[in-house]
């Protein structure tokens, strides 16, 4: 078996050499996060008033959309002129620390494509040529799926969770005064969870390439997958049936897309195997036609 291509100039690298290469990838990735986090930090009004605190106001895009959809069906129940809770800060340095931590989180989200690209640059030289060919476009598709997941989490999963939990009361005499840290934790958890869940097609792609997952296996266990998806939706959303259905639908579609991806991967592998066998047969036929070498 041919040795794997190695990092750098294709010579065998020691463990310390690999650590040195990894160190520079990590440094560049960290710098990108710091740059985006700094930009987010100085865009304080947009970051908090528009972006972070948007789901806490009744004029948020998601609430207005549900209101318009409800009116189409003759219902005004989804419409509200205010969100029934107050966000408050109870610590002296609470707002400053939240400002810094939120800027870092936003910096990581914005820098995610570059972070994954740096990780890919470290991994790619250690792959076989056919493995590099099979994973072409991985950075692009991973980044696109992550961005779509984050947008879905921010505009659908997080607002529904916030609106349900903030409006839930056990007694009318109790006023919901939500701590700033609790609000941010709910928002970021919902958003980042959806970003990671949306990576399902790429995970299935690499598992199918490795021969671990086949479309038949995914079809056989489809019912089990639906149960797992509903459980995941129940975890990342409040105990509200509408919210769970809205979150479950795109994940189910991603699962069906993953089955198709696994099927395409298998067809491609079979086509390459048939092509290789055809070349070997052609070479054997040519050798037979030429005859044995003359001494």
Automatic annotation (TrEMBL):
The chain crosses the membrane at residues 21-42, 98-117, 138-157, 183-208, 220-237, 243-262. Part of the twin-arginine translocation (Tat) system that transports large folded proteins containing a characteristic twin-arginine motif in their signal peptide across membranes. It is a multi-pass membrane protein. InterPro entries: TatC. Keywords: Cell membrane, Membrane, Protein transport, Translocation, Transmembrane, Transmembrane helix, Transport. NCBIfam families: tatC (TIGR00945). It comes from the Bacteria. This is Sec-independent protein translocase protein TatC. It holds the Pfam family TatC. It comes from Hymenobacter caeli. Belongs to the TatC family. It is found in: Cell membrane; Membrane.
């Amino acid at each position: 078996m041919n040795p794997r291509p190695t990092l750098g100039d294709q010579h065998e690298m020691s463990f310390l050499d690999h650590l040195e290469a990894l160190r520079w990838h990590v440094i560049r990735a960290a710098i990108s996060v710091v740059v985006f986090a700094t930009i987010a930090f100085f865009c304080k009004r947009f970051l908090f008033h528009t972006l972070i605190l948007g789901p806490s106001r009744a004029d948020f895009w998601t609430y207005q959309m549900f209101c318009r959809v409800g009116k189409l069906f003759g219902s005004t129940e989804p419409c509200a002129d205010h969100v029934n809770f107050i966000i408050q800060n109870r610590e002296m340095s609470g707002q400053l620390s939240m400002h810094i931590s939120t800027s870092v989180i936003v910096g990581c989200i914005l820098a995610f494509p570059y972070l994954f690209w740096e990780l890919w640059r470290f991994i790619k030289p250690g792959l076989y040529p056919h493995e590099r060919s099979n994973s072409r476009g991985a950075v692009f598709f991973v980044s696109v799926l992550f961005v779509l997941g984050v947008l879905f989490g921010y505009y659908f999963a997080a607002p529904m969770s916030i609106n349900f939990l903030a409006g839930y009361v056990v007694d009318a005499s109790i006023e919901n005064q939500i701590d700033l840290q609790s609000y941010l934790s709910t928002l970021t958890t919902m958003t980042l969870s959806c970003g990671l869940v949306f990576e399902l097609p790429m995970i299935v792609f690499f598992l199918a390439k490795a021969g671990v997952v086949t479309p038949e296996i995914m079809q056989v266990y489809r019912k089990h997958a639906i149960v797992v998806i509903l459980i995941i939706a129940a975890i990342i959303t409040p105990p509200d049936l509408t919210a769970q259905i809205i979150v479950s639908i795109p994940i189910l579609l991603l699962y069906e897309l993953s089955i198709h991806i696994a099927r395409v991967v298998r067809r491609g592998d079979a086509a390459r195997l048939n092509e290789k066998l055809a070349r070997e047969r052609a070479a054997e036929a040519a050798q037979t036609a030429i005859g044995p070498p003359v001494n």
